[in-house]
């Protein structure tokens, strides 16, 4: 009997130990930010010591309805916040993986600005970001491409979804030719012919004619091994749209999409890191790569310059991508509440003939927010609306900072051009909750 | 002692009720889950079924620009890669099983250690096989395996084209590596279940080891080994991540084994994140439905065979 008891309690203890281990492991896993989801939870304790009462009416309303433990009374701080108000709330965004590295950094840094706001970003892909905001799963969506007209048609009736550029991205032609360290020159047309399978050899005269004679002599008589993304992506959307602008055959027979591109030739590799691995591991390879990858891993992969409309061969960097998008938006963006489906910043940049040093394969990534956040389709409380817009306002201003340690510089995300920031501010100012502008204080 | 065991039994009867309820609910739950999954996949893909009909299976275009989604190339990819996997994996897996059950008789510790090593291989997460496949296996195939195959077996269509390492053939090879532990672990158990009288009878007739294995052991375990093979096939058909890394992910109809290809599973993992319009999403769910039916058929087949084998063994002994 004693033996039996011991055995039972032994089993029980064993079970309990296993349970504890599982719970601890799960806790540690969540605390260590698993891939795909970033959760930043910082409970604000500073507000209790604040006694000042100067608060803008709009914000104080939202704060007083809040039941969170961090903010209980009228608050105002002299801390670093843009609105000089401590906000709280828990918001969720979701969308593309392209911005995920900088989004993580934004959420982290912003948690010091507004410790009471908890932001979760689900890196689920652009399409799922649009789907999520359509279904009211997220307070803000994210996409590497503006909505198509079909996607606009799928939005809840009566809603107006705003497209807000939050970051830039450039796509570089990366290659691996053993023994060749020079940066090759490409044009959009030649890239399209390579990816269409018309140009198959590295020493093809159409490639050689773009190079200096010393580089042209080094081009190997070897087949070009073409790589591209296997998954639908904003990077490939930008790249194939550029190819479509550059080459009529590509535009007619392949086109561009964030979904599945029917690549005529080449091998698909999963995600940017996969493309980088495919290029680095296979000699005589060529593939389009998001510049953030190159900047985060400098010198590991060789890439070429692309000729802009002015006629200069430009080697991509943060500055000339930002300038390209500034050139792209200099003729104006879609008016604040109009649809973006027929607007293409890539095409605008492509058609720009006056700017000499812009990098032509540059594109925006966008946050998606409903203009009326009190709409039932937006599934947002007023507190969440305020938190969402405060975060996005911060992202398009402080979040774009450059410098030796700024995330835009170190992570490889070119800062938004000022014209886009101006438009973003106008867009955010039009967002309302119950008819009142959410950002009235700013 | 008697009292305590009675007490145990009495409290156990309450436990019996709990046990019955819990395991009953679990059993019903799994059936409900399976049916629910089938219903959900069918309703989720209804738009695609309506739009493409049978063309979904027979057509070769998967293109978001044209808004046309057909899976024939991916189906060919799944079947080809799985066939290569079986062709390469079955002899090796069976060889390991025969070694473990026949050659290590008398050195049980060695057999156990080796057996657990094989089982450990089956527990390695597939994404690790995938990374290894991309970084190590694919370049190795490109440089050392595929060029000779191309020059020796350069049959039209089979090994033509440029060896690139990430292609259908490498996809099949990595699947073979992954199903070897499954096949060998199950086959070993089946070979161990072959009664020793079978072997002794053969040996007493003066048979060699090879003759014993070939004429007494393998025929006896035939249906069970077939079941193990089907289980391996099931794993090959359903495997996703490892294949995604090395198969090349090209959704055009493959021209040869050295062409980059796609399977049903890699199609889903690559495209699901960026579907928004209802049709492309329904099409991906229908890919899941095709896969579900394929896996279901294979698994039912395997279960029936394993069940038949164990039953016949019991009767023969």
Furnish the topology, listing elements before pairings.
The complex is a heterodimer of chains A (442) and B (317).
Chain A: H1 2-31, E1 37-39, H2 57-64, E2 89-95, H3 100-113, E3 117-123, H4 126-134, E4 140-143, H5 149-153, E5 161-176, E6 185-186, H6 188-196, H7 205-208, H8 213-218, E7 225-229, H9 234-246, H10 248-253, E8 267-269, H11 271-281, E9 285-290, H12 291-296, E10 302-303, E11 305-307, E12 313-314, H13 318-328, H14 345-351, E13 362-370, H15 382-396, H16 407-411, H17 418-429, E14 432-433, E15 436-437
Parallel strand pairs in A: 2-3, 2-4, 6-11, 7-8, 7-9
Antiparallel strand pairs in A: 1-3, 4-13, 5-9, 5-10, 5-13, 11-12, 14-15
Helix pairs in contact in A: 6-9, 13-14, 15-17
Chain B: H1 2-44, H2 46-52, H3 55-58, E1 62-63, E2 68-69, H4 72-103, H5 108-123, H6 126-152, H7 168-192, H8 196-204, H9 209-238, H10 241-246, H11 264-271, H12 278-316
Antiparallel strand pairs in B: 1-2
Structure description:
The complex is a heterodimer of chains A (442) and B (317). Chain A is 39% helix and 17% strand. Chain A has 442 residues and is α/β, with parallel strands linked by helices. In chain A, the strands form three sheets. In chain A, strands 1, 2, 3, 4, 5, 7, 8, 9, 10 and 13 form a ten-stranded mixed beta sheet that branches. In chain A, a hairpin with a 5-residue loop joins strand 11 (305-307) and strand 12. Chain B is mostly helical.
Q: Top keywords for this entry?
A:
heterodimer, A: 442 residues, alpha/beta, ten-stranded mixed sheet, three-stranded mixed sheet, 15 strands, 17% strand, disordered N terminus, B: 317 residues, mainly alpha, MetI-like fold, two-stranded antiparallel ribbon, 12 helices
């Amino acid at each position: 009997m004693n033996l039996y008891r011991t055995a039972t309690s032994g089993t029980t203890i064993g079970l309990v130990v296993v349970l504890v281990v599982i719970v601890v492991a799960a806790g540690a896993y969540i605390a260590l930010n698993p891939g795909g989801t970033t959760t930043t939870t910082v409970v604000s304790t500073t507000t209790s010591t604040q006694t000042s009462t100067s608060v803008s009416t709009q914000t104080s309303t939202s704060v007083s309805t809040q039941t969170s433990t961090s903010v209980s009374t009228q608050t105002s701080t002299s801390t670093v916040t843009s609105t000089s108000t401590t906000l709280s709330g828990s918001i969720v965004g979701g969308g593309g993986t392209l911005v995920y590295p900088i989004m993580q950094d934004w959420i982290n840094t912003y948690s010091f600005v507004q410790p009471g706001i908890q932001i979760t970003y689900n890196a689920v892909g652009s399409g799922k970001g649009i789907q999520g905001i359509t279904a009211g799963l997220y307070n803000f969506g994210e996409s590497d491409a503006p909505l198509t007209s079909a996607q606009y048609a799928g939005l809840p009736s009566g809603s107006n979804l705003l497209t807000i550029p939050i970051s830039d991205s450039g796509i570089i032609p990366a290659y691996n030719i053993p023994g060749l360290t020079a940066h090759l020159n490409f044009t959009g047309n030649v890239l399209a012919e390579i990816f269409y399978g018309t140009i198959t050899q590295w020493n093809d005269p159409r490639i050689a004619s773009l190079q200096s004679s010393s580089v042209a002599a080094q081009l190997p008589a070897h087949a070009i091994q073409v790589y591209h993304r296997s998954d639908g992506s904003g990077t490939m959307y930008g790249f194939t749209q550029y190819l479509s602008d550059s080459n009529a055959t590509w535009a007619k027979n392949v086109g561009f999409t964030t979904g599945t591109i029917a690549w005529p030739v080449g091998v698909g590799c999963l995600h940017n890191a996969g493309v980088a691995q495919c290029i680095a591991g296979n000699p005589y390879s060529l593939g389009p790569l998001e510049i953030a990858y190159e900047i985060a891993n400098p010198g590991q992969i060789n890439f070429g310059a692309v000729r802009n409309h002015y006629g200069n061969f430009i080697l991509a960097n943060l500055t000339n991508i930002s300038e390209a998008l500034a050139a792209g938006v200099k003729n104006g963006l879609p008016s604040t509440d109009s649809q973006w489906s027929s607007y293409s910043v890539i095409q605008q940049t492509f058609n720009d003939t006056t700017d000499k040093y812009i990098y032509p394969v540059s594109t925006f990534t966008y946050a998606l927010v409903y203009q009326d956040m009190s709409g039932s389709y937006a599934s947002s409380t007023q507190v969440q609306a305020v938190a969402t817009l405060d975060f996005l306002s911060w992202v398009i201003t402080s979040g774009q900072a450059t410098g030796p340690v700024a995330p835009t510089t170190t992570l490889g995300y070119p800062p938004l051009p000022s014209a886009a920031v101006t438009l973003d501010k106008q867009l955010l100012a039009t967002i309302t909750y119950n008819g009142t502008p959410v950002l009235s204080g700013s | 002692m008697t009292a305590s065991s009675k007490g145990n039994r009495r409290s156990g009867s309450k436990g019996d009720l709990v046990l019955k309820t819990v395991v009953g609910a679990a059993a019903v739950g799994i059936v409900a889950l399976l049916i629910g999954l089938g219903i959900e996949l069918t309703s989720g893909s209804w738009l695609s079924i309506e739009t493409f009909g049978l063309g979904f299976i027979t057509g070769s275009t998967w293109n978001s620009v044209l808004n046309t989604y057909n899976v024939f190339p991916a189906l060919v990819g799944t079947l080809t890669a799985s066939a290569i996997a079986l062709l390469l994996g079955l002899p090796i897996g069976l060889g390991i099983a025969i070694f473990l059950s026949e050659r290590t008789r008398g050195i049980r510790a060695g057999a156990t250690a080796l057996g657990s090593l094989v089982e450990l291989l089956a527990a390695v997460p597939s994404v690790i096989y995938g990374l290894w496949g991309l970084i190590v296996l694919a370049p190795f195939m490109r440089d050392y395996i595929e060029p000779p195959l191309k020059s020796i077996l350069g049959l039209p269509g089979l090994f033509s084209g440029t060896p690139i390492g990430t292609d259908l053939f490498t996809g099949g090879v990595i699947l073979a590596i992954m199903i070897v532990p499954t096949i060998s672990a199950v086959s070993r158990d089946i070979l161990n279940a072959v009664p020793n009288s079978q072997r002794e009878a053969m040996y007493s007739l003066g048979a060699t080891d090879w003759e014993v294995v070939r004429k007494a052991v393998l025929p006896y375990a035939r249906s069970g080994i077939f079941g193990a093979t089907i289980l391996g096939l099931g794993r090959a058909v359903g495997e996703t991540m490892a294949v995604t890394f090395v198969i090349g992910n090209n959704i055009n109809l493959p021209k040869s084994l050295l062409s980059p290809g796609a399977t049903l599973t890699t199609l889903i993992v690559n495209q699901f994140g960026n579907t928004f319009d209802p049709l492309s999403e329904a099409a991906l769910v229908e890919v899941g439905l095709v896969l579900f039916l394929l896996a279901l058929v294979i698994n039912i087949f395997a279960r029936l065979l394993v069940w038949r084998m164990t039953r016949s063994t019991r009767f023969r002994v």
